[in-house]
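Lab channel / #folding
Pinned by the channel admin:
"Please post every new chain as: sequence first, then the structure tokens as a reply. Keep commentary short and put observations after the output so the thread stays searchable."

First post following the new format, from NK:
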Amino acid sequence: MDLNLKYKMGVGRLVKKRDRLYDKLTYNTRYLEILGKKRDARNHKKLQMHDIEAKKSLLPLEMQATPDAIVNCELRTEALEEFAKKQIMPRRAVEQSAKRKASKQGEVAGQAYREQKLGALDKQLADYEKQLLAKYPDVEEASVNIAAVKSYEEATDNETKKQYDLEARLAKEKADVMTAANAKIALKNAKLKTALDAANKQLGQHYGSNKAKLKDGQIISIKNMKMYFSGIKAVDDLSFDIKEGDIFGLIGPNGAGKTTLFNCITQFYKATEGEIYYRDRFGNIIDLRNYQSHDVARTGIVRTFQNLAMVPLIPVIDNLMIGAHVYYSSGIFHQLFRTKKLRLEETANRANAMEVLERLNLTRYAYALPMNLSYGVLKKVELARTLMSKPRMIILDEPAAGLNDTETEELIGVIRKVRSDFDCTIFLVEHDMNLVMNVCDTVCAISFGKMLGIGTPEEVQKNPLVQQAYLGEDGSE
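Reply from TO:
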């Protein structure tokens, strides 16, 4: 075997080992958080049950301590409200029938029908009110039963004390569980951290020669990129850098090579020539050409596609959880037998998905089926799904395609929020100039795979080559 290839395979195995260690560390941190939430939910349920039982036991004493006049009045009011609710639908039916009769026989006939039927319903309500008054009569205000009031107050104080005692006991139980779990996880994490540091140190030595490839503050550098298809130059000697935290836009006419460039970065295509250096989540500068497409996501690069890729018959929240599949640490054994570890990991990912949906104001769609949602909502859901894999850089392929003006404006706000709240770089291809010019910090224009111009949105708009490519003119008067 070629020594260089053997060396690369060794580095690849070390990278996968490091990623597994990192995933376990991340999972352990999330596990403690989920364990605390599960305990809180369990304790809340116990406290609610105790509260319900306490109210049941106090109700007879409360009734004895309350004067008959007040009790009877409340019972009549409650029963009358329930009866009135039952009449809502019949009254609506009468109104509809009256309108139909009025349209056929005239307004007088409709009004007569309405008065007859509603009068009958009003009589039922009045008769029921008389029955209630006979059952729960008005009585003169009686003197307060001091003994009953004292008994009720004592019972209330006793139940309140029980509630406090239960809260204290449950809090102590949670603290004991969390202390034990923290101690156990701390031992595991210490070993994982030592192994992770050792793996990063080894990889740092390997990637040390790449330090000059990226300047401080840059996340990715593309140098002399070429992608040829049977002589067609889809990308032709393209070079640019992207800063960390930037929203970077790539624009150009149809067929300019934008999506091809995305495919080269994410290794769907292996570039004909050129370099792609990227600063991963560990600060190492790596050559993406050495990665397979299914491994790129682990470096912190995720992407969307021009066409939506939702599973239509499962809820939105489950579609989001698919986005975290590369970080599942549960192996095939856990998947096959649905072990406790897998269930806890799924709980953690589900909680993470709900948090993402909440931060993007999509919570109301969590359990909706994608097939029932509008295209604009699905675009935002697809962007939310990219956040499940803890990205450092998100690549968006025409995110505003198919959206109307209002939906595009909303998407601009979502993209900005993702960049600020999730601390990631965004690299997008887009034809909608309103979105590009309003959301991007830097814009790069290409045509037939070649660079036309790069700079701020204002600078690119004024570039004569860009104007010629888009408008067929040089922009001069």
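NK: Residues 215 and 221 are 9 Å apart (CA to CA).
TO: also worth noting, The longest strand covers residues 218-229.
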